[in-house]
Amino acid sequence: MSKIRKEKSKFNSIQFRVFLLILLFGLIPMFAVRIVVLRSFEEREVAAKNQEISNQSKILATQIAASDYLNNLDSEVIDAQINQLSNVYDGRIMLIDSTFTIVKDTYKMDEGKVITSQEVVSSFRGETNSRYDREYGFLEMTLPITNPGQKDVIGVFAINMSADTIMANRDFYRNRANVCLIILTILVFFGAAGSSELIIVPLKKLRFALEQKKHGLVDEEIHVGGSSETEILSNEINALVADMKLVDASRQEFVSNVSHELKTPITSMKVLADSLLSQEDAPAELYREFMEDIANEVERESKIIDDLLSLVKMDKQAAKPTITLVNINEFLETILKRIQPIAEKAGVELVLESFRPVSAEIDEVKLSLAISNLVENAVKYNKEGGGWVHVTLNADHQFFYLTVEDNGIGIPEDSIERIFERFYRVDKSHSREIGGTGLGLAITRNSILLHRGAIKVHSELGVGTTFSVRIPLNYIS
Ligand code: ADP
User: Fold this and answer.
1) DSSP 8-state code for residue 111
2) Measured between alpha carbons, how far apart are the two ends of the chain, in Å?
3) Ligand 1 mean position, distance from CA 261 (Å)
4) What CA–CA distance (Å, rounded) separates 352 from 368?
5) 134 in Cβ contact with 41 (< 8 Å)
6) Can you give the pTM of this predicted structure?
7) Contact 428, 374 (CB under 8 A)
8) Widest CA span of the chain, in angstroms?
9) pLDDT at 54 (0 to 100)
């Protein structure tokens, strides 16, 4: 089975195709030239012979007409000339009179017989006919005999002669051509084999370099010269490998971050439990206090797991959004109503301002998560007292636009680029204190990208932060 596949891939290879192409493009014209040249040679020979016989016969015909030979047949000179012509061309000459009777036959076979073949009849109309029979190797001609200066045909010459010399010449040149063809075919074969091998060399080098890299024998970038194609290919491969390394590194970082984040609450719980266990007569209040802490850690652990699950669900490749047409004004009101108590508790004023009624095709659950995260963050990272969060909604014919603005603590400039990364927090301990997992904005971003939207952030430390979101009104799948 694998042998068959190997054979198949051999015939499928570029090398084999190049070899075949060169071979075909080399051989086909050669064979075509051979056929055309030999055929032309033969045709020219036949034409020359026809012309020669025709000339001789015309001279003879003039003499026959002048001496009225057809009627009395008693000219020895003409007899001799006809016989000579027949000998020279190794053929048979017949003289036919106006009654279609053969009056002279150099083979003495058909004298006195009547001949009404198509060619003879047409020659009595003044036409000269010639036919070359390649298969049996003879030439046939019929020529009219007319009185000098007149048009009337008084008789016809029928000449039938061997084409042996033409065929012998043709065979001689054919053999020569065949020998040349064999030599050229061998040359083209080796030329094609060599060229196809040469063309494939840079690709073989590339394959070798890739195999070395695959088996981990080399770690550097691949650089295979020899052709611009392989250079481009090696650059593309290097870029791909670099991308894959990045993806791998980010995946590894994510896994280590997840483990770390999940381990932190467990470590805290273990510490709390151990310290309780180490005290023999710990008072009930201490138990209560520690158990409350343990319950908080459990809650935190479960929040991280929830967020991780949301993040996975929001992954562009895995997620298949459930799209419905939603009234965005009502949708936002519902979200804000839910967050209102948290805002009140934090002393933050929450305001929604809609500039127009908007309906859009969205995945309600996924987008709700994204907007909630933004508004919750705006409340969480706000000032104590005097804080406000301003949410606006606007739209044009293509998109709807959301802004979530706060006058909170702001984000330092060097962190702005990183806040959408998973587990990134500007102030880890502060975020932890207020129940942050560092996953909220990553979830938000993924959800917005899933809706083919975009998100931007503008922030000033100590002044406030504005997140601007743009989402198409119609979902583009
Ligand atoms: P977290 O769970 O910590 O809130 P997020 O991914 O939601 O994680 O946010 C990442 C970080 O970005 C936060 O830890 C916080 O430092 C910063 N951040 C997010 N939103 C705001 C905001 N509105 N004002 C100030 N900082 C913010």
Assistant:
1) T
2) 43
3) 16
4) 15
5) no
6) 0.60
7) no
8) 163
9) 87
